[in-house]
Design a protein that fits this description.
heterodimer; A: alpha/beta; Rossmann fold; six-stranded mixed β-sheet; four-stranded antiparallel β-sheet; 9 helices; 10 strands; globular; B: mainly alpha; ABC transporter involved in vitamin B12 uptake, BtuC; two-stranded antiparallel ribbon; two-stranded antiparallel sheet; 4 strands; 72% helix; 2% strand
């Protein structure tokens, strides 16, 4: 059974259809990349899965149960966790306190301090635990997004353009953190425009355009498909 | 595993001084005159109201200007219980809280549909509805109100001095108790959730914080505690009427003044604001309406010079926090980088202001 199964999901903002009868599955332990041009509906898809916005029609099955009507906080406790494209740190709290929020409210069970510290360690932020989150540079803010999400003990981690705006070296550090998280058994769905970063970890690639899936498969095959090329590179004049 | 600590040297000193101070205040019936006992009792009432309103507005973002609804409700609960049941007036204090809690939950269903300024006005309207409602009850004296019979007060204690002392101790308990509870609440998981919600609602809900539930909990707890204060206030006054019981000036406007002047969103602020208000009142009360003009002028001045209030200004300047609510990780010794500042913890209030300053300078 798939960990996450999206069935005929629809969402429109007024007349604009942002998610158009979308269906796809995410299997336990997978690491999936989502590609697509701006406005394709990628972040909206994350908002729908995490519950930040409600779908108009369709089902979102997580671990077999439909969560389409469940609130954001409840979905987080069920095991769906996400990072934001634009980091939303709790600016007036320390890095540790930021992560502690996730470890306290996003999961059941005790030893929240230990969990928060472990999440900081995985994200490479432990030495900055007592710093003010609002004072962090971009890479650390992105790491903090990930650490907070990890502290909720997720089964499914949704990463939204977490490598965007980073230098080559910073991106490399982040990739190794993502690999660690994945090897610890967390299923990851990652939206990214930095294609080479995505391709270096993704086992499967999904491409969206105008709220629809236009490709789904092995990264090599998907990148070779004509439709994907036409979206990213334009039509080949010789064809 | 590393340790996570909460206390600082300043906070340990503050705790020790607070214990001594409360002990001295508890002995006031043995060293103070009736007049000073009454003044101290009134200060305690306002300490409680200011701390509670600060929890609601400063920490939870629920800027209510209708807390007089619960002060008046608590007062009327006292009169109902004493006159119709003939019980000891002191019992009315906890009973007022028990009755006010479910009622405030019902009010919350209504006012939580509103946000920001609309919430503020909505709570005021509800308080007016309470006032008009109680003015209709002829058994409680209708619009002209009623007095607490001396026979009822004798239930509490036979001599006047004993009654004064009991009422004072109840006030001391509510005043110091409110500050203690606010502090403990802010140190608890709820405090962590409140701070997170203040910084980003979107992020806190996606990390599992049930925002509405946390806000509702604080609203109901504050309403119940405010009703206890209300029952006590009218035990001090011995007389109640709708206009005095549900006065927006006495129970909300002055309280807002204290909290804002002292420093909203800090535990220390309302304490300083309350003390300052009473000092000003002692010196200026003889000048009549000039006293209110001076209060208003001072409020404007503080808003312009130190918008974070007096404690906000002090804490910002010297990085002080007497009631630390944050968490600090004890890190193993690391090669100094970032000038060794990695290990330095700044109080959460201080931290918040640093961010605000950074935003201004950007």
């Amino acid at each position: 059974m798939a960990l996450l199964s999206i069935k005929n999901l629809c969402k429109r903002f007024g007349a604009l259809v942002v998610t158009d009868d979308l269906s796809f599955d995410v299997n336990e332990g997978e690491i999936i990349g989502i590609l697509g041009p701006n406005g394709a509906g990628k972040t909206t898809l994350f908002n729908l899965i995490a519950g930040t916005i409600r779908s108009d029609a369709g089902e979102i099955l997580f671990n077999g149960t439909n969560v389409a009507g469940t609130g954001v906080a409840e979905r987080c406790r069920l095991g769906i966790s996400r990072s934001f494209q634009v980091p939303h740190p709790f600016a007036g709290m320390s890095v540790f306190e930021n992560v502690l929020v996730g470890a306290t409210f996003g999961r059941s069970g005790d030893d929240r301090f230990e969990y928060a510290l472990r999440a900081l360690d995985v994200a490479g932020l432990k030495q900055k635990a007592n710093l003010l989150a609002g004072s962090l540079p971009l890479l650390d803010r992105k790491r903090l997004e990930m650490a907070r999400a990890l502290a909720t003990e997720p089964r499914l981690l949704l990463l939204d353009e977490i490598a965007g705006g980073l230098t080559e070296r910073e991106c490399h550090e982040l990739l190794s953190a993502i690999r660690d998280v994945h090897s610890a058994g967390v299923t990851i769905v990652w939206i990214e425009h930095v294609v080479h970063a995505l391709l270096s970890v993704a086992e499967r690639l999904v491409v969206m355009n105008f709220g629809r899936l236009i490709a789904d498969g092995k990264p090599d095959d998907v990148m070779k498909s004509r439709e994907v090329k036409s979206i990213y590179l334009g039509e080949d004049v010789n064809v | 595993m590393q340790e996570v600590t909460r206390a600082t040297a300043a906070s340990r000193f503050a705790l020790a001084s607070a214990i001594v101070l409360v002990m001295v205040l508890a002995a006031a019936p043995y060293w103070g005159s009736t007049a000073s006992l009454r003044l101290l009792g009134e200060i305690m009432v306002y300490l409680a109201l200011a701390s509670l309103w600060n929890l609601l507005a400063g920490f939870t973002g629920l800027v209510s200007i209708g807390q007089q609804a619960y002060v008046g409700f608590g007062g009327y609960m006292l009169f109902t219980i004493c006159i119709s049941l003939g019980w000891n007036p002191l019992y009315a204090i906890p009973i007022a809280a028990l009755v006010a809690a479910p009622i405030s939950a019902l009010v919350a269903v209504l006012v939580f549909r509103l946000n920001g300024a609309y919430f503020a006005i909505g709570t005021w309207v509800v308080a007016e509805v309470f006032r008009l409602g109680f003015a209709q009850m002829s058994s409680l004296g209708g619009g002209s109100g009623l007095s607490l019979p001396i026979t009822v007060m004798r239930e509490m204690a036979s001599t006047k001095a004993e009654r004064e002392a009991l009422i004072y101790w109840a006030a001391l308990l509510l005043g110091t108790g409110s500050i203690t509870i606010v502090y403990l609440l802010l140190r608890s998981r709820i405090g962590l959730a409140l701070t997170a919600i203040r910084d980003s609602e979107v992020a806190s809900s996606s990390l599992g914080v049930s925002i509405t539930r946390v806000k509702l909990l604080v609203y109901v707890a504050v309403a119940a505690a405010t009703a206890m204060v209300g029952a006590l206030v009218f035990m001090q006054k011995l007389r109640i009427a709708p206009n005095a019981a549900f006065s927006v000036t006495d129970w909300t406007a002055f309280v807002i003044f204290m909290v804002v002047i002292g420093g909203i969103g800090t535990i220390e602020g309302p304490i300083i604001g309350t003390l300052l208000y009473f000092v000003l009142r002692q010196f200026l009360a003889d000048f009549g309406s000039i006293y209110l003009i001076v209060l208003g002028g001072l409020a404007i001045l503080v808003m312009m010079v130190a918008p974070q209030g007096i404690w906000g200004f002090v804490a910002n300047r010297w990085g002080l926090s007497l009631f630390p609510v944050g968490y600090r990780v004890k890190l193993q010794a690391m090669p100094a980088y970032n000038n060794g500042k990695e290990n330095e913890y700044v109080g959460r209030n201080q931290a918040h202001r640093d961010v605000a300053a950074a935003r201004r300078n950007r």
